[in-house]
What does this fold into?
Amino acid sequence: MNLKIAVLPGDGIGPEISAQGVDVTTAICEKFGHKVEYRYALCGADAIDKVGDPFPEDTYQTCLWADAVLFSAVGDPKFDNNPAAKVRPEQGLLAMRKKLGLFANIRPVETFDCLVHMSPLRRELVEGADFVCIRELTGGMYFGEKLEGDDRAYDTNAYTRTEVERILRVAYSYARRRRKHLTVVDKANVLASSRLWRKVAQEIAPEYPDVETDYMYVDNAAMRMIQDPRFFDVMVTENTFGDILTDEGSVITGSMGLLPSASTGEKTPVFEPIHGSWPQAQGKNIANPLAQILSAAMLFEYFDLMEEGALIRKAVNASLDANVRTPEIQVPGGAVYGTREVGEWIVDYIRKA
It folds into this structure.
């Protein structure tokens, strides 16, 4: 297979983890006889500093050229601490999602046996937890009509039937490939937009008789994820609720540095770690590259290259079992491995497999 990949390293630790994701992707392509071509592009604070736009037109065109985007992270404290800033790195991420029509964000939440002890939840609650959060990305308050004044402000949580139905069908397709259980998360007892979500879900659920469908208010879902995370198989929800719930789900594993994600839709899909840019760690070679590397696994699996994705996952698990880990997940007294060293170990494992 010939793969064209746009690489958007972004800000903070982005370039460091991006390099490991690219190296692993290259090693897999060499191992399985695929050809890969990379093109690098600017985004986030780096793009603002260089061209004044967090998602410039050149970057958009590079994404359109590619079969897939390997994205890392955006964000910089100089914008976070300036409420008057008119242009922000995160606007580049929103623009990318909107322009590429990326309406479905897929976030797996999976525990690793050797790291269960690091979860904030008790072992008996979290062990074996394995579910997927599917978040709608292009509607809701983030993109609805807004007003921001000194004495009054609002964000409109607007959805259409088409937007709701298409994300529900993505969720059902995942549920059919997994344990056939879908939870629709909303706030239908209060919000009109949520009542539309529930109405549409109830209308199309009979088309998927092999999938058990249940409905849960978002506050209850947030509690259930802590009390009994193994209850969930696939959950689907709107943009704002999904943003919050997926971050809650991410800490169940014990480290945000372990979880990848995919954003898919109308044009080029994007694969990225769920964590942020962690600017405090920039240049220190301490950032965990595993989420970026597992995002590469999701990239291969998107193109039905399942054996390639499986080898990446096997290599990641082997590195954890061998205690080849960055500091935040290393066992007491374990050897010191940095971002580069973990990536190099995994590449070497793939080449020898």
